[in-house]
Structures
1.
Amino acid sequence: MSSLKSLSLAGNQLNGSLPNQGFCQLNKLQELDLNSNFFQGILPPCLNNLTSLRLLDLSYNLFSGNVSSSLLPSLTSLEYIDLSYNLFEGPFSFSSFANHSNLQMVIHGSDKNKFEIETEYPVGWVPLFQLKVLVLSNCKLIGDLPGFLRYQFRLTVVDLSHNNLTGSFPNWLLENNTRLEYLVLRNNSLMGQLLPLRPNSRITSLDISDNRLVGELQQNVANMIPNIEYLNLSNNGFEGILPSSIAEMSSLWLLDLSANSFSGEVPKQLLAAKDLKFLKLSNNKFHGEIFSRDFNLTGIAILYLDNNQFRGTLSNVISRSSWLMVLDMSNNNMSGEIPSWIGNMTDLTRLVLGNNSFKGKLPPEISQLQGLEFLDVSQNTLSGSLPSLKSMEYLKHLHLQGNMFTGLIPRYFLNSSNLLTLDIRDNRLFGSIPNSISGLLELRIFLLRGNLLSGFIPNQLCHLTKISLMDLSNNNFSGSIPKCFGHIRFGDFKTEHNVYKPMFNPYSVYLVKYLFFSAEEHRDEVDEVEFVTKNRSNSYRGGILDFMSGLDLSCNNLTGEIPHELGMLKSLDLSYNKLSGEIPPELIGLNFLEVFNVAHNNISGRVPDMKEQFGTFGESSYEDNPFLCGPMLKRKCNTSIESPNSPSQPSQESEAKCHPLHQPLLASKMVQFY
């Protein structure tokens, strides 16, 4: 194959290292594409023999080691090179490309942050190339933008995201490169104001999110970037009123202004931008009635309005948005009832209305949203009984906590084999846990704290083997802790992540559009839950939930002994019950246990030795167990201490902490009523 000019092995499952012999003798090779495989090891030095190479794509593999600065200088015919998403590390001097006069596209993106590209050595070097595409994402660039960019005038795509670049916004880069279409500077440390830009008719995507830019947007911002399609200014310090001219960007389909300090009302013209598909105004100071008759976003698919000061009701003008998939109105001043017509918005996959002032019942029509994956109506004043949601087969996260729901948990409440989170804390539900809950086999987080539930904890919960957080505290459960809880591993399992490796056409300048500008990156399903540890309610969000494991059965009427096995827990709270017997010595083996509390029970015997993890727990973890002894409690263990024959009565302190509203009496009256 010595005459071979083009070799593509992209998108297979090939592994191993590149051979030193044979492979490097293809000295007529012009195109070498190995992307999206499992190749590993260092690059063979003989690659520098392939002096005819115009295209070299090694992206999405497991290559490691240093990219030698002596390897690339000889490949002066290169037009395209992509080293993205490997395991390369160490420094690499970009001046190695200085004499590559044909070079047009350089792409390197990484999520390992061990590959450092040096752009300023030697000082003042001048390139012979004129790039069209430059992607240096997460390459440890520090300080001002690379100096060689001052000599570039044909750029169409620039991505310098996830570095530590400083200085002001580079207006000069846009002025020098009138063909620039995509500019991504997100997650750097750019400072100062966004000064007026010279009108640029080519730029379609601008992402300067996660920087330190401040000030107000220019009134004529639409004239500066008239053909903009993607505009992301999120996570900066922008402030002031949003200029109405922003609605004059007729091609705009994605606008993200979240996490700034914008204030005032949203311009009416923007609410009528029919081509807008994605709008994110989260975490600002916007106010006013957002769903007025001016609302006419008929093409909107993703709408984030959370964490503002919007008021009003869920007007039926929303129904004009027939493509709406995501609606997040949480943490505002919305009021009224959740309308029954919400069930007609059948494209919704994410509905978040938490922390408002919605009242009334949760309409049963909401169960018509069969494609819904995330439902949050928490922290409102919703009342009545829970509707059956068994038709929501794709539901992953359900948050109903902090309302006034009453009655029994429906026997056939849920039927989603995908459900990961079920949070119905702090309501007024009573009765027992229905056995049908055991069918939610993928459930990771199960929170029932602060209701009026009673009866035995059903053994069927042991079928939920993937549970990591379970909170049944502040209820009226009785009986013993199911021994089969030892079969629940509480988070000790591996989560499989499917990694998608996109395939690219290396000659298309638009290849970068998918990688860096897809709105999919905004449609995260990041969940957030509260869990009490050390008497404090803490919120846990996103990836950290994969590492949390806890069981809270405190403030109930549980009796019997503590099971000898309780999974790989980090937090275990059994306080304020009527448990007896000794602390099982097997619990000492829970090396990751950070919180342990058996206070206010009838536990007897010796406190575990103050070694390993149990040496970190204080006296408060064992208090009000008069028959416990040991150095920790300054109470000697001797024959005069006898185990209790009967459970002690709850103390006033217990009643105050666990049942501030005398919930047992209330539960009794509700059961009689039903």
2.
Amino acid sequence: MENVHLVPEEEEDDLYTGYNDYNPTFDGEDLHNDEGFQQAVRTSHGRRPPMTAKYPGTAIGGRPIGTAYGSRIPVGTAMGRPMTGAVQDGAARPMTAVRAAGYSSSIARGSVFDPLGQAKGPAPPLETRNEDTPEEKIKILEKKVNDLIEESCLAHARGDLQLSLEKAKEAGRKERALVRQREQTGTADHINLDLTYSVLFNLANQYANNDMYTEALNTYQVIVKNKMFSNAGRLKVNMANIYFKQKNYTKAIKFYRMALDQISNAHNAMRIKIMQNIGVVFIHMGQYSDAITSFEYIMSESPNIKTGFNLILCYYAIGDRERMKKAFQKLICVPLGIDDDDKYIPPNDDPHANMVIEAIKNDKLHQMERERCVDMVKGSQYVELANDLEINKAITYLRQRDFKQAVETLKMFEKKDSRVKSAAATNLSFLYFLEKDYDQADRYAELAMSADRYNPAALVNKGNTEFVKEDYEKAAEFYKEALHNDSSCTEALYNLGLTYKRLGRLEEALDCFLKLHAILRNSAQVMYQLANLYEMLEDPHQAIEWLMQLTSVTPTDAQVLAKLGDLYDNEGDKSQAFQYYYESYRYFPSNISVIEWLGAYYIDTQFCEKAIQYFERATLIQPTQVKWQLMVASCYRRSGNYQKALETYKDIHRKFPENVECLRFLVRLCTDMGLKEVQDYATKLKKVEKMKEIREQRVRSGRDSSARGRREGSAGSDSGQSNHGTSAKGERLSVKLKTLPGSNEPYEASTQQEIDASYVDPLGPQMQRPKTAARKRTEEDEFADEELGDDLLPE
């Protein structure tokens, strides 16, 4: 312990000395009790810069001191510089380099929180376009030039060549004025080169169309020599064409070759056409060897009929028979681009092509081709193919709508073996069924069945003939037998469903169509039949569901949309009903029942002005029906437009002077409006009502005399029949008169029940016709259902 020395306390080195020392200025614990500070806060004295030194340890001269008021009071430096967050010039200086959107931590006095800047008021109005500025004048002039080019092209399309040339010249003058104006305004760098090219190119074309070849060539030279026009070298083809018309063949060849040099190999079709033109020019010059060189190149690269024919002519001109044969072989190998079955079917819109096809359809070459083909097949081991070829020929006649030739071809097989006979008889039955010769259709269906009882198409056709005779039980038996022989026969399954529907066996019909829907998922006819069956089974929700699926397949079918509207209307959902009725009207605005429903809907919802357009359309469709015109007048009257209603009633009275309802409303309106014409209309109304009473009395007397005649059973049956006819007519008239409102009742639209009763099914009111089956080449191949589409309209 003698060697241990203790350090005195005053000499102890404390590492943390000084960290608890602080400037008393920063002591904020007793600020609430500091009277001087509180007084400074409450008065303007606190905003004076204190005469203190800078805070030690900082680079700035001062910083805000927090208070209990939730804001920071800036404390200035000796120089009076405002600190961060202080108010300067009425705006809050941001605390950081990034300011928050729409607000800041301190708000200037008197400012309002306005993040969207709405306090600035509405935006100033757009400046009106000043058309006197040079740039605006240039734009207007450019538009005029474009319009003149378009007018020139349209005039040429109409055949007015002189007018097209005048417009092209005027466009050229306007374009030159446009260039001068740009040079004057110092905007020559912005000259529209595309517009200049269009003007010159159109002008050259119009010169050529008017046989002004010199001017056309000069204009083309202007374009070709201008290096600023890209791909202008192609126009040398047009110049070569002009030289060819002038019979300057040497220059034509020169310019064709110049154009060929400037066209890359990527544009092979253009190069082939130019080569073809070069070959034609050589033919006109008599240089057949050079022409052969061009045509042979084309036939090796891209063979076509015209070039192959020209090549044969060149070989003929030089007397080279062997090369002629080879060229002809190449020519017949050139694809025509159409199917063999369609090459003799004439198009409907080209009379010249129709004449050519009629000429070659049965020429000697075609006859020889057909006879040799069939004879060769008949003499070979594939003799059965000859029969198939003949049946295929009959089918080709059908596609050409030559039913007579098709029938004659098929009748040739009546004495053939059973398989071929059955196929031909099936097709004949189908043809006669289409022509509504049901006796012949039944005869050939029996013949097909006797030749091959397991032919499902023959059984379907036999069932169809029984269906037309309304022997539904027997028809169902044939359809069932066809399904037994071929379970995938969709025609038999569809027709069986129709048959069950006619017999009232709705559940069985539903089962057939559900099976068919599993096979034909997107068949619109099947979906409609399912919807119709569910409606007949009083399940409207399922009917709506199937119709909704149907709209996904045929979204623009107006009748399907109308049917959906009808079902929703029956369910009481007027908004959905209106949506589908309106869509139906949009696709087919001539359906009277849809128009009537929409008009009645707007009347019920008190929008009579909107109902007017629908009843006016109904008036256009049925101008002789007075009720639509009365509804238009009624809508005007309901909407308060009495003057327009009066004019409409007067117009109706001129067209239908004996209409009682029109006269009644004329009397009422003239009375309410205090017009002098009321007496004239009242007199006319009395006369018409008196004539109506006389007519009704005659109807009642005719009915009574008819009934008396039947009771007496007298021999005067002819007279009784005549009275009965009069009575029936009178009944129809009385029913019509009962529908008219009384004199004190307003003319209303048809009730909803009347609208429902007048609904027509989507696919037409025709009788349901069964699907027709037919046969073509073999037992397995049916004459597919291209024959089914037009004849299988559901009821």
